[in-house]
Amino acid sequence: MKFIKTENFAVADRRLANTVTWYLNPPPNFNMRIPDEVRKCVVYLGAEYGNGTPPQNINYRGTGFFVAVAAKKVPEASFMFLVTAKHVADALEGKKVWVRVNRKNGTSMNLKIIENTKWFFHPTDKAADVALLPISLDMQVFDFAVLPAAMLLTEKMRLEKGIGIGDSVFITGLFVHHVGFSKNIPILRTGNIAMIPDERIPIRNFGDMEAYLIEARSIGGLSGSPVFTLARSPEQITVLLMGLMHGHWAVDSESVVDKISQDAGIRAGVNVGIAIVTPASKITDIINGEELGKLLDEYEAREVAKNSPIPDKQ
């Protein structure tokens, strides 16, 4: 029997850190270097202001994204975390906090975070600007993507894959000047790795921070945004999570007056174009830390017990 060839054929998409997704036919973005998942993993974080009614009175000021880690004892199960910058979580403390997530019907929904919800921070490094919140979302209702733990770049992985100064990076997150009327519309900014310091960098309000420096203009609202880089080989291009956005250096100038930025509560100044990235390994450290690890073990134990067989009564 002879089959006629068509344009539809099964393909394996390995762009997300070699995590394979099989498609019966190639998706529309298959030949792009940057898959759609890097924008769909992003959500917006904000707090209520004034006496209005949500969502009209929610001021979105930071970005978050989703990361998943496989459970140890429950097959095919995983834990999902909302990740953002620690300084974003700190700024929202004591306020009525909302997360804006896109829905599959083309709109978005504002989900309220219960007051006094505990965020998890780095167990030993107080200068690590990252915060995690264990969460669960209905994938049948919400239109989002979760980054697998295999995408988190480690120093060992960076050296093995030859990722270094000059390699491409891209950031996706909140653009405060246009949040989107009915749904999240993240922007994507590109640049390159500018410096991989072998020493900590003094950062205002954080102390000496372990960080990457990238040639890219970070702006208010991108705090907590995922920062990706690319690993290249003759066979494929792989997308890896390099870290998350902390901020940037700016030269204050009275002669530079940005009325839109002032209205949004963003300090005016000249952005020097070098942004600071908290390494993705800091996320892994929190997940593997004693405090969060104990909580996840308790979740798993309850799940295992719930699904364990019950002995027949004698």
The low-confidence parts are: 1-8
Question: What structural class do you assign from the helix and strand content?
Answer: alpha+beta
User: Total domains, how many?
Assistant: 1
Mean pLDDT: 83
Tell me what the structure shows:
It contains six helices and 17 strands. The protein is globular. It has helices at 37-40, 86-92, 155-160, 259-263, 281-287, 290-306, and strands at 11-13, 21-23, 42-48, 58-70, 78-84, 97-102, 108-113, 131-135, 147-148, 168-173, 187-195, 201-203, 207-209, 212-215, 226-232, 237-251, 270-279. The longest helix has 17 residues, at 290-306. With 314 residues, it is of the alpha+beta class. Residues 1-8 have low confidence and may be disordered. The protein has a single domain (11-306), classed as Thrombin, subunit H (Beta Barrel). The chain is 15% helix and 35% strand. Strands 3, 4, 5, 6, 7, 8 and 9 form a seven-stranded mixed sheet that branches. A six-stranded antiparallel barrel has the order 10-11-14-17-16-15. Strands 1-2 form a two-stranded antiparallel sheet.
List the keywords.
314 residues, alpha+beta, Thrombin, subunit H, seven-stranded mixed β-sheet, six-stranded antiparallel beta barrel, disordered N terminus
